[in-house]
Amino acid sequence: xxxxxxxxxxxxxxxxxxxxxxxxxxxxxxxxxxxxxxxxxxxxxxxxxxxxxxxxxxxxxxxxxxxxxxxxxxxxxxxxxxxxxxxxxxxxxxxxxxxxxxxxxxxxxxxxxxxxxxxxxxxxxxxxxxxxxxxxxxxxxxxxxxxxxxxxxxxxxxxxxxxxxxxxxxxxxxxxxxxxxxxxxxxxxxxxxxxxxxxxxxxxxxxxxxxxxxxxxxxxxxxxxxxxxxxxxxxxxxxxxxxxxxxxxxxxxxxxxxxxxxxxxxxxxxxxxxxxxxxxxxxxxxxxxxxxxxxxxxxxxxxxxxxxxxxxxxxxxxxxxxxxxxxxxxxxxxxxxxxxxxxxxxxxxxxxxxxxxxxxxxxxxxxxxxxxxxxxxxxxxxxxxx
Length: 386
Description:
alpha+beta, Methyltransferase, Cobalt-precorrin-4 Transmethylase, Domain 2, 2 domains, five-stranded mixed β-sheet, 7 helices, elongated
């Protein structure tokens, strides 16, 4: 896989693959043309893309001539109508692979109607994915030699491995929340109600730890909505603490790429009138997630990434609404904790605010509202409410 965002890949990156004699392998494959006309060609295409998503993800580069797995020249492929081709690919993958998988196409223009097409697949939390095209019914994965059909033992291991990964992610979140709630967090925080953000790259439990001290994360890591901080190196990685004498926020970047961010100040309202400051609350999460994803990119983490938002000790809290919208508080939350469902981020270029829309809606639902008032019905942020 080319080590940059798919939309940033240029012809220079393809030339670099040639100059460095980068060979095909488990995460990259070269093809001179894209053929989808016959049934056999469509089946072969599905076998290829599913093998990547069932392994570690990777790139298929169409429009290059290779020999012994190394690009010799760039030939390009003829594409007269890219939108039509993209729809054909989307339809073929949607109907021919289950469960549904995501892919990311990128077109590099060489000359009129001559292009390089890159398809990027990401490792999936729903794997293994099966090719169900016509009477074809098979699972594929990859190794350094290319794709291969999975046998019974490999398939059993894939299902067990996928479930084990989900279990580890669930246990991590559950255990961390229990520690924070019981007062065993990384530092002692002022305030009872807590906003927690957990960010977990799916690869965090499967790959080696990152060299965090060789990155700018040591200085740039910042807690949620803090005006003062100090960063230290600790046993787990890098810890950023908010507040000088009284600590109200911290963010821990673990060596495996997991981020845990906790803040009490944003929910530290008057005990007799606890409330969630709607707009600033949502903006704090959006801004912090944008920052943390930049940090993960900087240390070399890859997507997919799972995001979890939790609110602890918030029974009785309400949303404080702007007077220009409603001159009253909403109904109060009826439970101690809100552990919100995961958000899966499949690309660093994703619109964070839009990804958060369903989760924000659930918090507003807990206060008696249909959805966040700071979004329109299509999930776009509104700028007309103060």
